[in-house]
Amino acid sequence: xxxxxxxxxxxxxxxxxxxxxxxxxxLDVGCGSGLSGDYISEEGHHWVGMDISxxxxxxxxxxxxxGDLILADMGQGIPFxxxxxxxxxxISAVQWLCNADKKTHSPPxxxxxxxxxxxxxxxxxxRAILQLYPENSEQLELITAQAMKAGFTGGMVVDYPNSAxxxxxxxxxxVGTAGAxxxxxxxxxxxxxxxxxxxxxxxxxxxxxxxxxxxxxxxxWVLEKKERRRRQGKEVRADTRYTGRKRRPRF
Amino acid sequence: xxxLTHNMLTSHVRGVRPGGGFxxxxxxxxxxxxNVDFNQEFVARMIPKVExxxxxxxxxxxxxxxxxxHELPPxxxxxxxxxxxxxxxxxxxxxxxxxxxxxxxxxxxxxxKGIPNMLLSEEET
Lengths: 251, 125
Prior knowledge:
The structure holds two protein chains of two kinds. By secondary structure, chain A is α/β, with parallel strands linked by helices. In chain A, about 30% of the residues lie in helices and about 20% in strands. Chain A contains six helices and eight strands. The longest helix of chain A is centred in the first third of the chain and has 15 residues, at about 1-15. The radius of gyration of chain A is 23 Å and the shape is elongated. The relative contact order of chain A is 0.11. By secondary structure, chain B is an alpha+beta fold. Chain B has one domain: N-terminal domain of TfIIb (Single Sheet), CATH 2.20.25.10. Classes of the chains: A alpha/beta, B alpha+beta. Chains A and B meet through strand 2, helix 3 and strand 3 of A and helix 2 and strand 4 of B.
């Protein structure tokens, strides 16, 4: 397990895209016993780690990690001044925000508190790379929605999407600059350019219901019905920009 | 807790006015000095991020001011002597036991074994 953690830390730092040969100041959220921190130190960067478990932090102290450690709950906010960090990594920690450990906890609020304070604590142009294990797609959507609300751009990079064992989710968030998402590993597509990455855009998506059919009476539905009748050989008017347009309420 | 980290920590209790939770006043009962490799570039890059007044105040309260000037000298990037002094104060002085006090609200965050406890109660979030 230590090997996997170390590999994920390496991949996370790689995704950070830090300038070469420049020692940076990073935040490790959910640093635990400092496994990822050790890798960050090896790369020559300085770091500060936060974790909610004092037991894990004690282990980190015993291992004499180089980074400073803070006992804190990420859902309560990142207690740092604005623009302090050149980047943030997190290995297998953020999904814990989705569990409501206490009755008074509200996961969306805690997620938003975490992301908004993280956004402010990061310097302009830096990134946050959060490796997580989402339980289901609803959790993933909740997390990404709160991240977007907090002002981040970016998206999910999924390494080895076709392997159940090796599949890893990295939520790559950018502060300020909308850069291109890094390429995922092991994404050999069977045909064509199917993108394995979920991008955040402001485009509105067309809605289809659960059966995959268009919503009845919408413009899509009208166009599909006309196609169907053409195939049946019936006489159908041509499609123009007025096809399926909204009529006055009197209709 | 190194002084570099202390310089960036603020109180995140709900209701604290922006900027009011910084700098946290240190009341240290145990301070340690380590040896950390000097990296000139890193120190020079960190200086603009550091709140100089708060750093001097914190170093003084620990008794480790070690002739650090009260004002940031204009040309510090190539002044290796100065950068070494800054390096010592930022990265080599560590508070092992003590208390961090919020200047506005007086809320105290204890430091044990070098780790500050920033956990908040339910009312504070």
